[in-house]
Automatic annotation (TrEMBL):
Native organism taxonomy: Bacteria, Pseudomonadati, Pseudomonadota, Alphaproteobacteria, Rhodobacterales
Protein name: D-beta-hydroxybutyrate dehydrogenase
Keyword annotations from UniProtKB, A to Z: Oxidoreductase
Record's keyword annotation contains Chaperone: no
Domain (Ketoreductase): residue spans on this chain: 6-198
Any one Pfam family match given in the protein's UniProt record, by short name: adh_short
Database matches in PROSITE patterns: ADH_SHORT
GO molecular function, one term: 3-hydroxybutyrate dehydrogenase activity
Any GO BP annotation: monocarboxylic acid metabolic process
Organism field: Roseicyclus elongatus DSM 19469
Amino acid sequence: MQHHGRHALITGGGTGIGLDIARALAAEGAEVTITGRNLARLQQVADETPRLHPLQMDVANDASVRDGIAAAAQARGPVAICVANAGIAEGAPFATASPEHWRRIMATNVDGVFVTFQAALATLGPGDWGRMVAISSIAGLRGLKGAIAYTASKHAVVGIVRGLSEEYMGGAVTFNALCPGYVDTPIVTRNAAQIAEAKGISDADARAYLARGNRHKQLLSTDEVTAAALWLCSDGARSVNGQAIQIAGGHVT
Ligand code: NDP
């Protein structure tokens, strides 16, 4: 129960990687605010697990994040652990990608991390302990064909934690990013369905195709990402700061 009494906030905490991290932090004693746009789904998972607290919040909407995090802090105390996980993964060939596609991805994946960390940090006092983790991607470290906006957005996430680690150097708050390869979550299920349709192949073959994007050619499970997140949020990871950690079955870049 290393996080007993601490308040953690996970954006996109109602599904996939975010939910798995939320449950693990709650098991370690934290009171965990899980956020997303779909309140019914958040409420449902909160009903199933002690110490999860649902909060409707759209990370692409500044006021929604600032008001939501301030309210969560009022209810459960300063946000000592913040996992900026909410994100969307949409591909489009560069030549035909629309400005709306670009802006939608940037608003969620980049602006969302910026405002989430800013609002979470604002709840902490001088010298307070904190762990800020952002979920980037292998696309935050190398180029991904047919997904320029996603690639740029995830590179920006790495830039945010590197910059913040310098700006807050010497304090008790650390900033790191996790860069997973293909993880078996609703995002991969949706992508596999699209690939299956586009290529005229089975769903299983489409999943195998995505798995080959990982160096060991296997889809990751969410608990592999969670294990790394738990470590970054631990007291022992005090000196790990400004890192972008690859979880992809091998060296990416
Ligand atoms: P999910 O689709 O399950 O999770 C995405 C979450 O983000 C959902 O809970 C969704 O909640 C939330 N979300 C999306 N847009 C918004 C928004 N505007 N405001 C608030 N919440 C939002 O997939 P994953 O768990 O896989 O994705 C989590 C993160 O991991 C993403 O950042 C993704 O890019 C990253 N990632 C995933 C990989 C994978 O292979 N699965 C690989 C590398 C990185 P709601 O719908 O309720 O808003």
